[in-house]
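hi support,

uploading two proteins for the ticket. first:
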Amino acid sequence: MEIIISRDVKQIGKLAGAAAAQAIRESISASGSANIILATGTSQFEVLKQLTIEPGVDWSKVVMFHLDEYIGIPITHPASFRKYLTERFITKVEGLRAAHLINGEADPHAECERLNKLLIDYPIAVALVGIGENGHLAFNDPPADFEVEDSYIVVTLDDDCKKQQLGEGWFNSIKEVPSKAISMSIKQIVKSQKIICSAPDARKAKAIKNTLEKPVSNLCPASILQTHRNCTIYLDTASASLLTSKEQFL
């Protein structure tokens, strides 16, 4: 695992987006295609902005999946991750081969089954992820299920997760935040050949410390990234502020 720290949040996004583009190019060169997972949230703004303007990516050979979606929210809702990815990625790249979005308005278990069957044919080359304030990875809140084999599962959002969604401005009140979501599972995420994790902001500092310096535990789901052989985590100095060994990464 590699850690990259910068004082400039925008620079972190640019570096992560450029790294993602390079990994996509390499996958296309090696196998003729690239299957990718995209995350959402404020941590991904600059990442996706950079990814969509990177030169030399043949998007006609790229298939996109995404990490998670609220259950019961229409695509027109400001918090919809389908809306987020449509506006910030799908409409920004030309000729994308396919975008497999999670339909949070469908029957949740049927939608998981549809996606689980689909993903069998698309091994993931590159996954873009973030880390939640509670240490979650996708919507796998603690204590996360590290053993479930299904690629997509129905999960319950904890109070800390809901507060983060409210704090980031996606909802007007905590009561508006859905209690359920469809999320890619931990096991599926770590199957990705390369993981690029962007997690800036001081409010992530405790989660980052637990992710990188505590033993791997489902009480901090993102700590599973310690076990991945090809994972790069991009931090700003604020999110890295509690790390005891951050000097070695600067």
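and the second one:
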Amino acid sequence: MDSQPKILTPRVLIISFLFVVVVPFLPLLISRQWDWWQAWVYAILSIVAFVISRALAARRNPGLLAERSRFLRHEDAKPWDKTLAPLVGLGGAAIPLVAGLDARVGGSAGFSLPVEIMALAAILAGYALGSYALIENAYFSGMVRIQTDRGQRVVSSGPYRWVRHPGYAGGLLVYLATPLFLASVWAFVPAVFLTVVLIIRTNLEDKTLQAELDGYRDFAQRVRYRLLPGVW
């Protein structure tokens, strides 16, 4: 009998469809501006980045997607992360939602094309860094927990040579650049809120790992910075 956990449950399929397909298209669906090329690029890039990163991660670390599919169902997840993790997901969805509403009512004046191109480059860099971290780290769970059931150990290769939490660093690049690319000043409100949440989560996760994961304190001494080299 197959003892491998089932990944594609109805719950996972529904959540994946909402966050992977619907959310990236929110700016277009809400604004009804079908000629908004930036929104098309944002949606397609978000979906392609998700699919490619998960496919590569599953190929390298077969148990990772099963681990991530149990989002909010880990009994040993840290209590504070049962609040912070959903806030990260909702905050990420709020950015394109607000951008779509902003475009519909014509609230923001927008940004120049060079600024939008630089923002697009930042989004690409953010997706690349986050995907690199996901592929490199077999323990890249959706919840903060010490994965004793999976034999968790410290990962110090790949982007973890530069910062201790490259997945969060890549996410922050995407979140803060998206309002610029989608020309929405109001979208900075959820982006800034999400930045604060991620900084808090990074700090709490780092303290947890230093206290409970063998070898992490030594790793933290070698890789000094959590999110941004030279800053924090």
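thanks. also noticed: The radius of gyration is 18 Å.
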